[in-house]
Specification:
Largest interface: A-B, 48 and 43 residues
CATH architecture of the largest domain in chain B: 2-Layer Sandwich
Distance between the termini of chain A: 59 Å
Number of domains of chain A: 2
Shape of chain A: globular
Strand content of chain A: 15-25%
CATH topology of the largest domain in chain A: Arginase, Chain A
Oligomer: heterodimer
Shape of chain B: globular
Radius of gyration of chain B: 25 Å
Number of strands of chain A: 16
Strand order of the largest sheet of chain A: 2-1-4-10-9-6-7-8
Radius of gyration of chain A: 21 Å
CATH architecture of the largest domain in chain A: 3-Layer(aba) Sandwich
Structural class of chain B: alpha/beta
CATH topology of the largest domain in chain B: Nucleotidyltransferase, domain 5
CATH class of the largest domain in chain A: Alpha Beta
Strand order of the largest sheet of chain B: 3-2-1-4-11-12
Number of helices of chain B: 16
Structural class of chain A: alpha/beta
CATH class of the largest domain in chain B: Alpha Beta
Number of strands of chain B: 29
Strand content of chain B: 25-35%
């Protein structure tokens, strides 16, 4: 009788009746063969592996993270309420010790969704990990969180949400942004002035294979996690680094994903991308589930797996080593870098143009952060889209000092008298979300 | 007239039904070492004075296979298992002669590695030398493409008495369960065959030349001859018999909870509009998780003879039974003894019952009457709370579509049907402490046999169409056909219903009573690059469990007049 060494929970929600469009990679069929493989392997029968039915996420859970324009209901489909709810369900099962670890095998994904949401970008509408994490902070008093994003695309949405949060370590390893959507995620992107170093990017060259990924895990991710000492480790488990993925250029494998999972030991994994629905996902997911449960995955292999033919070149290896060195450099010097970034500044402004590829929306943002010596600083975002929507959004962070709270409300009141179609306020300390 | 006979652990119950209802019923003691005599005695007694020519059908339900499995008294079989990549197939070993072989098929049914004929021949020789007569052959994803199992069977040839192929036992995906199911079928086959052939022969000798049907765990029946291919489906038919017996008395348009309160356990099931809820995967018996279709039942260690103890000032009932109630010569107080103290039962030794309850009362610091009340209430409360838990579990079963999740259909029984010895006393108390409409099933003592007699033939067909590869497969039916690119979901449903009809009639169904329904209906666009290359259609249809019409009305009518 098979018995899991680590009691593992699974939310499996393939959304068999939901697609972005009939031939879109994010379509009904995406997890069909994964379901077949997982069912056929009998994984849900293994002693110590438990399946949970996802709940629906509540609007309040979404508002803790996002400014949805014009409203939560308009930017989320029925399926997003379930995929975010699935992540929440699995997180609760872990926190309530029903299971030791959990994996939300859900779709649609979320890691390209930023704090302000005008529509879908990179197949994502809302950030399901962030919604789950902020729920955990609210419901269980979790403080320090580490997110390790192993999707092939830079997790720019999650990065955006936690850019100014020194209590959330966000590490993204992905295919070099010069060669792949969304074109960001370089080593120099290391967080806002009050949170320098808690955003880390490890851009990997195309054709990185098992040894490269595992090198980055062992030489950057694990040592950084050891320093940071998070209360909980989340893995944004995209599966598009696979050698058969149709929209990326990496050479990772099911064996590699399973080993990565064994090394990382995430408390919670959440599925992100991965569009090789026949050749990769069935095997990668079986590998990840077995690895999370602490079971043997030696024989989990794709039919066409040949480690020799996908081995990375010496040049790729050197490139990876150099990138990892640079990232560790950022991490080691984060205190001094932060001091330098904050010195002499009262307000920090950022102008950004954000393109929503899935919904073809262009957004312009003007962001202002109070560089506060006592907290991570209150934030306001002036955002307008080419759909004619113009909003002001104020975010008072979870551990805001009294001055930042006060300033946040001042900004909110002032903006209400201004030209904006909508004005939002996230008062995280009081878990209060206003809008006018 | 029709006959239902259900052999349980302690008693065998037999009933004779006519269009007007229950004509005769008998209860005989079960001799576990001689079920054959038990069955024949039951049949003889229930048909006493009846012209055998008047009998139209006979349905049997026995613990024969179940006992063989639980007591691990199964003759040896050979297992040939091909796993390929994934979880190591050696971890699913079912028995001594268990060989993992090469060859593999992927999730789309494509061959990854061919069968190694030489390897199979060698195993066949070894099995032969070891004197094995029956073999199970199971491949991973054989329900997507059975060619490897068929190839292996071909190599085995006719050297063995019978070969059980994994893709024929169920259309569902679950490799480890398929292994266990094929194994159990192969293992109980000779026991099942010898027993029922003997029964059939003796009945023929007595001039009882009627179609014999065997009850399955899903509350349906199959014909004697087709049971030879699926003897494993007869395990745990007993609990199904009782549930089917309750159906005749369930209200239409209602969700009902069925409670069978026995000596050792209370068994629970749920009916939706008189149709029992099925377990989506299959039976778990002993250490075997199988793909054998069954009713969703839940059994708890709390019955009339459960041991009553006091722990930390609280009453604890069960989960064990130390023997009969003290009123019937036992040595541990039981809920039945409480009923004696409360004056609800009197056909035993009340003195002894009082003594038993006094010991409980002493520990609780109250008088025996009070203690008896408490015990009885605790038993009822615990049954209710377990029932709530079962319903919660049913409602928290995962679903995989947005529509189903948002609709959130929820089972909420409002009616309670009770069977078993103390049924009427429990019913009174359940009425007081719950919101259920509580009813006692008439003739509850033989409701299991009534259920067996009235059960209709059930079966299921799964059809998978892959228009990209141009194949339609119904693995259990041994069907794999070429289909055109335009084969549609409607075509698939029509095809599935055709197959189901054929299968049901073969298994002994009455063509007038084919209540066929769709239980799964999914269609996916298959896309390569950015172009649709085909459709993946998955349909499942079934004849749902239920009662044959003519006779069940008689039973209902007679009960309503009684």
């Amino acid at each position: 009788m098979l018995q899991a060494r680590h009691k593992t929970g699974l939310v499996f929600f393939p959304a068999f009746d939901w697609a972005i469009s009939p031939t879109h990679p994010e379509r009904e069929e995406r997890l069909l063969y994964t379901q077949d493989q997982v069912f056929e392997e009998g994984l849900f029968d293994i002693e110590g592996i438990q399946e949970f039915k996802p709940e629906l996420v509540e609007e309040l859970d979404v508002k803790r993270v996002h400014f949805c324009v014009p409203s939560v209901g308009r930017v989320m489909t029925e399926s997003h309420f379930i995929s975010a709810g699935g992540a929440k369900t699995i997180a609760r099962a872990v926190m309530e010790k029903k299971v030791e670890r959990g994996f939300a095998l859900v779709r649609p994904p979320g890691h390209h969704a930023m704090r302000v949401v005008h529509g879908a970008r990179g197949f994502c509408n809302v950030n399901i990990e962030a919604i789950m994490i902020e729920y955990l902070r609210k419901a269980y008093g979790i403080d320090k969180v580490a997110i390790v994003d192993t999707d092939c695309h830079h997790g720019d949405g999650t990065q955006d949400i936690y850019w100014h949060d020194p209590d959330t370590l966000f590490i993204s390893m992905h295919q070099d942004g010069r060669t792949l959507y969304p074109g960001s995620g370089f080593v120099q992107e290391m967080g806002g002035p009050t949170a320098v170093g808690t955003t880390l990017n490890i851009p990997l060259p195309p054709q990185t294979s098992e040894e490269g990924f595992l090198y980055a895990i062992e030489n950057v991710v694990l040592p950084v996690l050891q320093d940071f000492k998070p209360d909980i480790i989340i893995n944004s488990a995209g599966q598009d680094n696979h050698f058969t993925d149709p929209i990326t250029n990496m050479n990772f494998s099911a064996q590699g994903y399973a080993q990565l999972t064994s090394l990382l030991k995430p408390d919670i994994a959440v599925l992100e991308g991965g569009y090789s629905i026949e050749g990769a996902l069935p095997y990668v997911n079986v590998g990840i589930i077995l690895a999370m449960a602490g079971l043997d995955y030696t024989y989990v292999k794709e039919p066409n797996y040949d480690p020799e033919s996908i081995r990375q070149t010496a040049q790729v290896t050197r490139r990876i080593e150099s990138v990892c060195d640079q990232v560790m450099d950022v991490w080691k010097h984060r205190e001094s870098l932060r001091k330098k970034a904050m010195t002499g500044k009262d307000l920090e402004n950022r102008t950004r143009h954000i393109f929503y590829d899935t919904d073809q929306i262009v957004e312009n943002q003007f962001e202002t952060l109070r560089v506060c010596p006592d907290c991570s600083g209150v934030l306001k975002i002036d955002s307008s889209s080419d759909r004619g929507r113009e909003i002001m959004a104020v975010h008072i962070p979870r551990k805001a000092c009294p001055r930042c709270v006060e300033l946040g409300y001042q900004w909110y009141e002032t903006a209400k008298k201004g030209r904006y179609g909508q004005v939002f306020l996230q008062d995280r300390p009081r878990d209060l979300y206003l809008e006018s | 007239m029709i006959i239902g006979l259900d052999v349980g652990g302690t008693y065998a119950d037999a009933v004779l039904l006519g269009p007007e209802g229950l004509i005769n019923f008998v209860k005989v003691s079960t001799d576990p070492s001689d079920l054959f005599t038990t069955v024949l005695t039951g049949l003889e007694k229930v048909t006493q004075g009846i012209d055998p020519l008047q009998i139209q059908r006979l349905v049997l339900s026995t613990t024969l296979s179940t006992n063989a499995i639980v007591q691990k008294q199964m003759p040896p079989v050979g297992m040939i298992v091909s796993g390929g990549p994934g979880v190591d197939a050696r971890l699913y070993r079912t028995n001594d002669h268990y060989c993992v072989v090469g060859g593999s098929i992927d999730h789309r049914g494509r061959e990854i590695e061919p069968v190694n004929a030489g390897e199979i021949r060698k195993i066949a020789e070894t099995f032969k030398k070891e004197g094995l007569a029956r073999v199970g052959v199971v491949g991973k994803f054989s329900v997507r493409n059975p060619s490897h199992e068929l190839k292996i069977a071909e190599i085995l040839g006719d050297r063995f008495e019978k070969v059980f192929l994994g893709h024929r036992v169920s259309g569902n995906l679950n490799f480890p369960r398929r292994i266990a199911t094929a194994f159990l079928n192969a293992a109980v086959y000779p026991i099942h065959k010898n027993f029922f052939e003997a029964v059939k022969k003796s009945l023929e000798k007595k001039g009882l030349n009627v179609p014999i049907h065997i009850l399955k765990a899903d509350g349906g029946t199959m014909r004697f001859d087709s049971s030879m291919d699926f003897p494993g489906q007869t395990i745990l038919s007993g609990p199904a018999a009782s549930v089917m017996g309750a159906i005749a008395f369930a209200s239409p348009e209602t969700e009902s909870l069925v409670l069978d309160i026995g000596g050792t356990t209370t068994d629970m099931a749920v009916l939706l509009n008189q149709v029992p809820l099925l377990n989506p995967l299959g039976i778990t018996l002993d250490c075997h998780k199988t793909l054998i279709r069954s009713l969703e039942t839940h059994s708890i260690g709390l019955g009339g003879d459960s041991a009553v103890r006091v722990k930390d000032g609280r009453i604890v009932i069960g989960p064990d039974r130390m023997g009969p109630a003290m009123a019937y010569g036992g040595s541990t107080p039981t809920p039945t003894d409480a009923l004696f103290v409360l004056g609800k039962t009197s056909n035993g030794d009340r003195e002894k019952a009082v003594q038993g309850i006094e010991s409980v009362a002493g520990a609780l610091g109250m008088d025996p009457e009070q203690a008896a009340c408490r015990i009885f209430d605790a038993a009822c409360t615990q049954i209710l709370s377990e029932a709530r838990e079962m319903i919660r579990r049913i409602n928290s079963k995962p679903v995989y579509t947005v529509r189903e999740l948002w609709e959130g259909t929820c089972v909420k029984p409002t009616e309670m049907l009770i069977l078993g010895g103390p049924a009427q006393y429990f019913a009174e108390h359940f009425r007081e402490i719950s919101d259920y409409q509580v009813r006692v099933v008439p003739h509850w003592g033989v409701a299991n046999a009534v259920g067996a007699a009235l059960a209709r033939t059930t079966c299921e067909v799964a059809l998978l169409v892959d228009t990209e590869q141009g194949i339609a497969t119904a693995p259990e039916e041994g069907i794999s056909e070429r289909v055109g690119r335009n084969f549609s979901r409607d075509d698939a449903l029509q095809k599935a219903f055709e197959l189901l009809r054929k299968k049901a009639l073969e298994k002994g169904a009455d063509p007038e009573e084919l209540e066929m329904e769709v239980i799964e209906d999914l269609q996916f666009n298959m896309v390569q690059g950015f172009y649709t290359t085909g459709k993946n259609i998955r349909v499942k249809v079934q004849v749902q469990p239920g009662l044959i019409r003519g006779f069940s009305q008689g039973v209902q009518h007679a009960a309503s007049q009684a």
